[in-house]
Amino acid sequence: MNGKFVGIAIMLSALLAGGSLYYLQVYGFYEEVSAEVEEVRLMSFTSDAPVPILADNIRAIDAESSPIRFRACFTTPSSLAMLTETYVGLDNVVPRNAPEWFDCFDAAAIAAELDAGTALAFIGEKNVAFGVDRIVVITEDGRGYIWHELNDCGEKAYDGTIVGEECPKRDVN
Fold this sequence. Notes:
single chain, seven-stranded antiparallel sheet, transferase
């Protein structure tokens, strides 16, 4: 009889821990930050600095627990032809998944558009946090998506490899 109670207690605590872990990963740390994202910027060929582009309907989420949890969606009237002539493009980008409740950002659909050539990727900003770049993808019909990705310095820093002089200094708080 005591074994049943112990077994039930273990199962209930495992279910509670699993449910808590799921909630924290999918909902708990994310917060809506749309009001804080006032503009979308892309790296210009001429100034090597991020420059604002026309963007409307910006929706964004972020989490303080990781610099790569940022996701955003927006619309723009800018054409892909104009963007490719003015801003630094990227090849071989793979969008990061977003929580299912953030329904404007579908990583599989974005990847399919990139593969089909109906969307192009650009560098939004370098080192938004140490070792993290902002990636912006814009489709032919003016839908845009943003996420953060580790750059070479970030991959080195977070896997324990020695970071070289080509990387910016890391802020240690």
